[in-house]
Amino acid sequence: MARRSGVSSKISTVIVVLFSLTFSKGDITRVSAMVGEEKQLHFSYPCDSTRVTLRNGIWAPFYDSTNPDSLSLPENKKLAFRIKNESNICLLQLKIYPVLRSDEGGYILTAYAGDGNILEDTRVGLRVDYPPGKASCGWEEETVADDWRLLECTAWFVSLLGEIVCYQNEIRVPPVRKPRDRDGILEHTMWVRFSQPAFCCALLVGQPVDRCKCNDYTWAGFSNLTEPCPVAVVTTHQGASTSSQSPTSIPTKEATQKAKKNHWSNVVTHVIYLFVIGILIIIIGICLVLSIREACKVEKISK
């Protein structure tokens, strides 16, 4: 059912564009745009036209010059007018930003004369391209060799050539074969190690890959890794000393000189203190010696 709906959406889009452009006069200008881009559609018409309308496909005009207040444009569309040179040719510019998938279709500008006849019928067919949808993957039952297995991935694919890529250990894994388009579904098979984390995504062929955002499908393997680029968490041991001063801060010259001065001042003070203590010890020693001698003399005289 999914494949049939993809094909039917393609066919219905083509039918609407062709139907809307077929039943009008004038040449058809075909342009294409990518979803999300900016696109400008240009329509020329005689400046002496009494009425100008602009519509998309078979729908009612969203612009009518006879009733400009009834302008019903979506937020992503804007109109601009200017005269082209001096040849009585006016130009209407339809700016679309961002381009949406619903903007696809046949845009028709019709210019009328005073009698109601059509003077100009400018037609622009806009095709909107968009990349494949998100990839979804599943393992095939067959084990190729050791830890290697086949991972089959699919994604919606409509207008542009796409592919599916997978990464393991920051390295793109090799595909088994080229991607295949089967009725609107993109199929791609890769060699993947079953025990290791794998991350897959769908994108346009040749589109640069942001590996950290390639996570349409994730396989954790035998680990708990669920993100292609996990954020590193820095932890500290409990009880570690902290300081408000940066360890890499460089002291100024004045601070260095002050520290040296304080250091030598402390040294001198310590030396003087030791010297005074030494003198006191010597004096006390001398007094003790003299006291002992006097005591000996007194003892001899008494005998």
Description:
Residues 1-26 form the signal peptide. The chain crosses the membrane at residues 271-292. Keywords: Membrane, Signal, Transmembrane, Transmembrane helix. By secondary structure, the protein is of the alpha+beta class. Among the domains are: 16-129, Immunoglobulin-like, CATH 2.60.40.10; 136-219, Immunoglobulins (Immunoglobulin-like). 23% of the residues lie in helices and 36% in strands. The protein is built from 2 helices and 16 strands. The protein has helices at residues 2-22, 253-302; strands at 28-34, 39-46, 51-56, 63-64, 77-84, 89-96, 105-112, 118-129, 136-145, 148-156, 162-168, 171-172, 180-182, 185-193, 198-204, 217-219. The strands form 4 sheets. A 5-stranded mixed sheet has the order 1-8-7-3-4, covered by helices on one side. It has a 4-stranded antiparallel sheet with strand order 9-10-14-13. A 4-stranded antiparallel sheet has the order 12-11-15-16, with no helix packed on it. A hairpin with a 5-residue loop joins strand 7 (105-112) and strand 8 (118-129). It is elongated and about 165 Å long. The termini are far apart. The model is unreliable at 1-24 and 233-260 (pLDDT under 50).
